[in-house]
Amino acid sequence: MTRVRSASSIERSAAAAREALAGLPWWWWVGADSPDATADALRRQGAEQLAVLPVMVRHLDRPADPGAAVSAGGSDDAPGLRVETVRDGERLAELVGTYRASMGISPDLKAEMVRTEERREDNQDIIRLAAVVDGRVVGSTVVITAHGVAGIFLVHVAEENRRQGIGTALTVAALRHGRRRGMHSAALVASPMGEPLYRRFGFAAVSEYRLFAFPA
């Protein structure tokens, strides 16, 4: 991760990122905490804006909608659906494989991604959740708890399993884990597809990020 303190350093930082990440997908996030004129500086370097993504927050002073909970028998749309906590082993490899696909990262990098997850220094703050149907991981999310906030990341549902309540089940589980760890609020950056779901859970937009990409 590269973070710049002034727009004048963007050209140098972008060149370094291009060299270090050659052949890999990478993005530049511009938010309220970015230096002024960052977006203009990125465009001058050839970057293109991909999306505007809301930063959404929900207080955890109330539980997730109990009507959205998943029982041991699953939901009506996805019978047998379970949300499991993942720590290591083959399930972790499946989980990484699920969100790897959503990020457009080559399958060749999966093994290295698994090793990176296993060795993270902040693993004690991380809750990895897998949505499992018929013994197969079909969805994922990661919750990182710190400073009273449950940050929700890497929410993904396999394309063939969407619109079956899996995203709802993952959100319920993420909010419950945040409450269990004593967090005061939950926060996430929503995709256009996920934003309506999160609003139903009471999340509200408080800021936004603009996502930029550089041509290969």
Summarize this structure briefly.
The chain is α+β, with helices and mostly antiparallel strands.
Order of helices and strands: HEHEEHHEEEHEHE
Strand tally? 8
**If strands are numbered along the chain, what order do they take across the biggest sheet?**
1-8-2-7-6-5-4-3
Average pLDDT, to the nearest integer? 85
**Which strand-content bin applies to the residues?**
25-35%
Helical residue percent band:
25-40%
Total of helices:
6
What is the radius of gyration computed over CA atoms, rounded to a whole number of angstroms?
18 Å
* Shape, principal axes of CA atoms: globular
- Class by SSE composition: alpha+beta
* Contiguous uncertain segments of 5+ residues: 66-74
Distance between the ends: 19 Å
Major β-sheet profile: 8 strands, mixed
